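re: that complex we talked abt at group meeting.

here r the seqs, copy pasted straight from the sheet so there may be weird spacing, ignore it
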Amino acid sequence: MPFNSFRDFMSRQDVLAFAVLAVLLIVILPLTLDVMRLNQAGKFLAFGFVAIGLVLCWGYGGILSLGQGVFYGLGGYAMAMFLKLEASTPENTSIQSTPGIPDFMDWNRITELPWFWVPFESFTLSLIAIVVVPSIFAYLIGVAMFKRRVSGVYFAIITQSIAAIMTILIIGQQGFTGGVNGITDLRTLLGWDINTDFADYVLYFVCVALLFVCLFIGQFILKSKVGRVLVAMRGSEDRVRFSGYDVANFKIFVFCTGAAFAGIGGAMFTLQEGFMSPSFVGVVPSIEMVIFCAVGGRLSLVGAVYGALLVNLAKTTFGEAFPELWLFAMGLIFIGVVLGLPNGVAGLYNSYAAGPVDKVLDRLFGSENSDGLKLSQQGATS
Amino acid sequence: MFSDFTAAELTAIFAMQGFAGLILFAVFVLMALGLAIIFGQMKVINMAHGEFMILGAYVTYLTSNAFAQHLPDIFGYYFLFAMVLAFLAAAALGALVEWGMIRFLYHRPLDTLLATWGLSLVMQQSYRSLFGAREVGVVIPDWLRGSYKITDMVEVPISGLFVMAVALAATVIVGLLMYRSRWGKQVRAVVQDRPMAGAVGINTARVDRMTFALGCGIAGIAGSAFTMISSTGPSSGQAYIVDTFLVVVFGGATSLMGTVASAFTISQSQSMLEFFIGGSMAKVMTLLAVVIILMFRPQGLFTLKVRR
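got the structure back, here u go
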């Protein structure tokens, strides 16, 4: 066990933050929102997965990826391909010239299922692909870049180009990918209709559950030795390298983790939205994902989830009311957060609210410091 | 893919595509020059560079309208005024942005990337509010219209030649500024060793602002030239930004020659491939090739030894 005590894994503030988020997502939102809004919140949370991954990569690893949309898209498309194949049974598609293949392939005069679609006939393989394909892709990029010590701005630009390439490719290869419309008309998951209100509720809770799984994984990584090394690397990469650590491997690991999270997010998005399209893959959505993380706080896992919720909430409410002003607002959020709030909402909380909250907690449960000291001493002696 | 064509056809295709590539090359050079001197000197990635370019395009559009209304006699030469105005407008805005935003972020290069992206969104929306979402085009003066016929199959548009001339002039002027002027010497000193340059009395903050303004100004000229070959919409700039960054990074970021060479390579390969495998695949192949080369040679084509 890498931790001496539970306190080492989660401080009291962490527990509080997780608990508050859990209450908000599991109790408050489902009780106060109607099913359409809840479904929308679920889609926002799907972006939360990406934001959590970015906290690991960017906030702690110091790697700014402007291509998270690629991994989000890979996960989302993996799910969409499975659902599409399920929806394209020979009976449903009997009017096509080639029954049994997705409709857009038929429109593009493709007569056989392409080889890379075949694995997605299996649900298990699709689920594996959602996590593994983005990770492998991230691994390849990571090995190529980090082993050669490409970092910082260069890495950002190259990942951005990859996002651009991916979008052009998806749009250009209409017959294989559904083109600019994406993969639409998804109906059932293993025979279970995903477009009913009940399905929306279930998928929302599945999404929340997976989100917490990712949050705990993230917390585990950050509090374990890997997290320490990441923080050290962000401070001074060379010193860590000279201390005998392979810096590149740590970066690759955290980049792959972020990609896997993004893939899960993409898959959950597809399930809740009912389609997947290149508009969630390209350069613009990828940068927006970074801003979710920046608004929430690039050093806070829980903050990232709030960031995704807040920015998307602002986007929908503001965008519905004043569509022409939304870009202004979005731009100003970018500039304002970067200039004024480099640690986002979580940074605000830490500098203004964390102290008083700690005092309240002290009064309720006794002082943490003495407690924590005792525990760590126990750990040292045992 | 070559077997379907005769030798004469192939030559003509290559000549035409090569020329189209040269126009693209000119636009890339104009865009990338500004970006390269900003990035090379300050390590600042200006995501709003495309929008500065579009500012130049809109200034040209306004000038053309103003000339058509008030000075129809010399309408043929509005373009020369427009370029100067585009440069001044973009440079002034650039200086303002540097003063108001960039200078607080010098020690956080990744954050400038996000902040300038925010700026680009604001600028895009401003254009949309001011000029409408529809694309606007300028009236090209008579002497820039038409095309010049070299052989039966090969034709070159004169506006394209003009854009190339502008790119060439801009490159030469920037080259002279960088390598022959006192200011250029200061810039190069700051690139090589910022603290030392400051220690010998160079006002590095001023050099930074001037560089940023100059880079944005060149983007303005690029936008001005851009109106010759394409119409302008609020988000036209974004379409070029990824290519331009790749040009800069591929060229080695600190070297003027590298930028020009990489702009040439990327634009030519894209334009040549376009004819055979279609526009989107040509772009994919080119970008992919550049990304893969960068993975093996992250420092780009040409490099300059710099103390960090």
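couple things i noticed - Confidence is low (pLDDT under 50) at residues 370-382 of chain A. The radius of gyration of chain A is 22 Å.
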